[in-house]
Structure formats: structure tokens, C-alpha cells
Amino acid sequence: MSNSESENKQRDRQIAHNEARREAVSSVRVSSWALSVSVVIGIILFAIAWAWLHR
Prior knowledge:
- By secondary structure, this protein is mainly α.
- The protein is built from one helix and no strands.
- The longest helix has 51 residues.
């Protein structure tokens, strides 16, 4: 294998590593938003049920 092929493979590995890291960060960000929205909806539903039962 020539030196340039080796450098290209190393560069491709680095790009793949960076892309995997970027996707992981994006997944965590989406999961955090989904969890936050779910908690807010749960609190609202709990408040409605509480008010309905204690009227």
C-alpha cells in the first residue's frame, strides 16, 4: 500500500469517528428534549386529574 493510500484510510477513519461522535451528541440532545416534553405533559395531565378528582 502506498503512503497516500494509508493517509487516506487514516483520514477516512478520523472522519468516521467524528461523524459517530456528532450523531451520538445529536441523539442525546433529541432524547433530552423528548424526556423534557414527556415530563411536562405528565405534569399537566396529573394536574388535570388532581383538579378533576378534588372538585
